[in-house]
Specification:
With 402 residues, the chain is α+β, with helices and mostly antiparallel strands. The strands form three sheets. Strands 13-12-11-14-10-15 form a six-stranded mixed sheet. α2 links the parallel β4 and β5. The chain is globular and about 70 Å long. The two termini are 27 Å apart.
Length: 402
């Protein structure tokens, strides 16, 4: 969790938040973000076929205008709400547009929370006015609290970097704790920078960063109906425009965006619902990225592996079994090595000769664990970050609507 002093405001990115009483607990639940007129925004969204109304509306609006505002509510997903949900999302955009003096199509809506319930529009209307009155470039902490659902801690990352001799600020926030699985984006994320950059370069940067971060985490294998991530460049920095993917400036900028988004993604895993372990599943020696990720996800998503992790039980047979069912063609089990941190647990098709239960137990007792799988089929390496499954995961989700 970051303190306010560690968050660097982004010029041209104004945030306001309020308690609109959408959440039953009365906590902050509505956020308004106003963007500088010169700002451009890139976005990626869930691939869930039952995408929420705000996702549909946001996609449509992005095709029509450069966004001037973002509207985010928590406590209600406005998903599975049919035609009424679309009307409510559009009405919300119109209300904010009226507050800020922009077009309805220049507002992007985002929602997170319970699926299948209509938005409380009277509360949304009042909340929009209240949040708009609180707009400030220093409003990150309040906004981050306003997008949380089952999250237990806010997730914010901020950097000030030098790009080709020019000072650039990058600050982002995300929310997510459960219903987390790679399918773009497995959460809500909002990242802002004052960099000057073209739309094409910004969109390419976001897609690349998403694939290295939010699409490499999994808590439970469930992909939300509302996932979205935006990257806004307000164009306020004193620097030349980044207009080439081959330029040194773009490479530097992209590297920092990747770093920020990976850190935000890992925060989601560390705050996974009921999680007690942070687990890196690293697959080395794959022929291509697809097969390496197949193996990583098979292990990361295995309920038996995840419950063994919660119990701190070095039940290496569960990991071996998950690798074997990953669906990799012509897998040579005798060539595979599996490690818990630096402890070899599997080699030559079975338990490693050097392995002891005591060594395995020492690793499994840790809160941070690396599972390393060496396929010895090629040179590709991929990593997925995940959690264990605890009693609390079941409790949190069983009681979610109560």
């Amino acid at each position: 969790m970051m303190t306010d002093s560690s968050i660097h405001p982004v010029s041209g990115f104004y945030l306001g938040a309020t308690q609109a009483k959408i959440k039953k607990n009365g906590k902050t639940d509505l956020v308004v973000i106003e963007l500088a007129p010169e700002a451009i925004t890139a976005a990626v969204f869930t691939q869930n076929a039952f995408c929420a109304a705000p996702v549909t509306v946001a996609k449509q609006h992005l095709q029509q205008h450069a966004p001037r505002a973002l509207l985010i509510n928590s406590g209600n997903a406005n998903a599975g709400t049919g035609e009424q949900g679309l009307k409510d999302a559009l009405q919300s955009c119109e209300w904010l547009a009226n507050e800020l003096g922009c077009k309805t199509e220049e507002v992007l809506p985002f929602s997170t929370g319970v699926i299948g319930e209509n938005l409380p529009m009277d509360k949304i209307h009042l909340g929009i006015a209240q949040a708009s009155a609180n707009l400030s470039i220093t409003g990150w902490a309040e906004a981050c609290a306003g997008i949380m659902t089952t999250d237990t801690v806010p997730k914010q990352v901020s950097r000030v970097v030098d790009i080709e001799g020019h000072r650039v600020t990058i600050t982002g926030m995300s929310k997510g704790s459960g219903m987390i699985h790679p399918n773009m984006a497995t959460m809500l994320g909002f990242v802002a920078t004052d960099a000057k950059i073209t739309q094409a370069c910004l969109q390419h940067c976001l897609i690349e960063a998403t694939n290295l971060s939010f699409n490499r985490i999994t808590v439970d294998g469930d992909t939300s109906t509302n996932d979205a991530c935006t990257l806004t460049a307000t164009q306020q920095a004193d620097m030349p425009v980044i207009d080439s993917l081959d330029s040194a400036a773009y490479q530097q900028f992209s590297a920092v965006i990747n770093e920020v988004m990976i850190e935000l993604a890992q925060m989601i895993v560390r705050d996974g619902e009921g999680a007690t372990k942070f687990v890196s599943v690293e697959v080395e020696g794959g022929r291509d990225s697809q097969e390496a990720l197949k193996v990583a996800h098979a292990v990361a998503l295995s309920p038996l592996v995840k419950t063994a992790l919660f119990a701190s039980d070095p039940n290496w047979g569960r990991i071996l079994a998950a690798v074997g069912r990953a669906g990799v063609d012509a897998l040579d089990i005798n060539a595979i090595e599996i490690y818990l941190d630096d402890v070899c647990i599997v080699e030559k098709g079975g338990r490693a000769a050097s392995y002891t239960e005591e060594a395995g137990q020492k690793v499994m007792d840790q809160s941070d664990i690396r599972i390393i799988i060496k396929l010895h089929r090629g040179n590709v390496k991929e990593t997925v970050w995940t959690t264990d499954f605890s009693y609390d995961y079941v409790k949190i989700n069983a009681e979610y609507r109560t």
